[in-house]
Amino acid sequence: MYLDATISEELLSLLLDAPTMDQYDDANLELFPIAVRGYLLSWHLVFDSFSSASSRVRSNYSALIEDGKYIEPLLNFMFDVLGNSAASALKLEKEGINDAMIRKYDMSAAMNLESSERDMHWLLVNLYYLGLKYIPGTVKKWWLTCKDRQTSISVEAWTEKYFSNLVVQDLLDDVIQWSDTQETGSEDEKTLSIRVSKNSREVFAGYEIDEMETSVVIRLPSSYPLKIAAVESVNRVGIPESKWQNFLRYTQGAIQFTVRCILENQSHFSTDQYFRTVLL
Questions:
Q1: Do 22 and 124 belong together in one domain?
Q2: Distance (Å, rounded) from C-alpha 79 to C-alpha 146?
Q3: Is 114 found in the same domain as 236?
Q4: How far is CA 110 from the centre of its chain?
Q5: Domain count of the chain?
Q6: Rounded distance between C-alpha atoms, residue 104 and residue 102, angstroms
Q7: Residue 126 lies in a domain
Q8: How far apart are CA 186 and CA 177, in angstroms?
Q9: What confidence score (pLDDT) does residue 180 get?
Q10: I need a labelling partner for 100 at 20 to 30 A (CA). Which of 62, 106, 124, 209 fits?
Q11: CB within 8 A of 219, min separation 6: which ones?
Q12: What are the DSSP calls for the chain, one per residue?
């Protein structure tokens, strides 16, 4: 019997007292108050829990975060501080925050920064990247339900400019690594083939039927994961058109929030079984 993985109640409790802009004037906030620092570092510990977890465990963690409604206060505070809610989003190149810093926050290096405010900005930027990487569906849900259109537009443009390509490249690296670990079937047992194009942000999935390959392509948009990946037909072999269209619609639905839904074992089917069950 499988038991759902959990994040410790002690750690989750630290996410309950989220800061708001109303609590601090500009001068105090620039000093990166201890309460704010503690709250943000607690989120960093939460995302550390995701980094070495399996897909199933990450799914459990994501459900805990979404059910507890923890993400909305974090993102609301984040985009107030970083200027998105005022349509003046932080320019990371001007702030001196590069791709490596987006991907990783280093407390030791942060102590040597010229200001506490820049330290806070770096940590917030890194947390947003980790949110897009580990709980993309939850972040996307916040974005879709954001009532302030100005904030929504700013966050999408900011995500596309600084974050989406990093998240996509990480995801495609994971797909390549996963594909390389799959066992090749015998001649009588055809297997799924995966090809990744990092430049065009595409994943091609093919399955051999009667010595010809039936294949689809998954294209990741410029503002992924806020915008959904698209599944398109590449080659249909030996499958009725109506069944093929049903397959494409089924697959599109399966990847509402992440390509991993069809490339990993999210149910009790292997990837080959997925194609056989839906297509054959």
A1: yes
A2: 12
A3: no
A4: 25
A5: 2
A6: 6
A7: yes
A8: 21
A9: 78
A10: 62
A11: 200, 201, 202, 229, 230, 232
A12: -PPPP---HHHHHTTSS---GGG--HHHHTT--HHHHHHHHHHHHHHHHHHT--HHHHHHHHHHHHHTT-HHHHHHHHHHHTTGGGT----HHHHT--HHHHH---HHHHTTSS-HHHHHHHHHHHHHHHHHHH-HHHHHHHHHH-S-HHHHHHHHHHHHHHTHHHHHHHHHHHHHHHHHTSPPP-TTS--EEEEEETTTTEEEEEEEETTEEEEEEEE--TTTTTS--EEEEEE--SS-HHHHHHHHHHHHHHTSS-THHHHS-SSS--HHHHHHHHH-
Closest CA to 248 of 227, 218, 273, 228: 218
Q: What is the pLDDT of residues 143-171, one digit of tens each?
A: 999 999 999 999 999 999 999 999 999 98
Question: For residues 213 and 193, what is the distance between their CA atoms, to the nearest angstrom?
Answer: 9
Residue 262 belongs to a domain: yes
Say if residue 73 is preceded by a cis peptide, omega within 30 of 0: no
Top-confidence range, 46-55, 97-106, 212-221, 222-231: 97-106
Q: Residue length, the chain?
A: 280
142, amino acid identity: W
In the listed set 115, 147, 162, which residue is the last one of a domain according to the structure? 162
What is the per-residue pLDDT across 254-280, written as a single tens digit (0 to 9) for each?
A: 554 444 443 343 433 344 444 444 443
Among 141, 162, 183, where does a domain finish?
Answer: 162
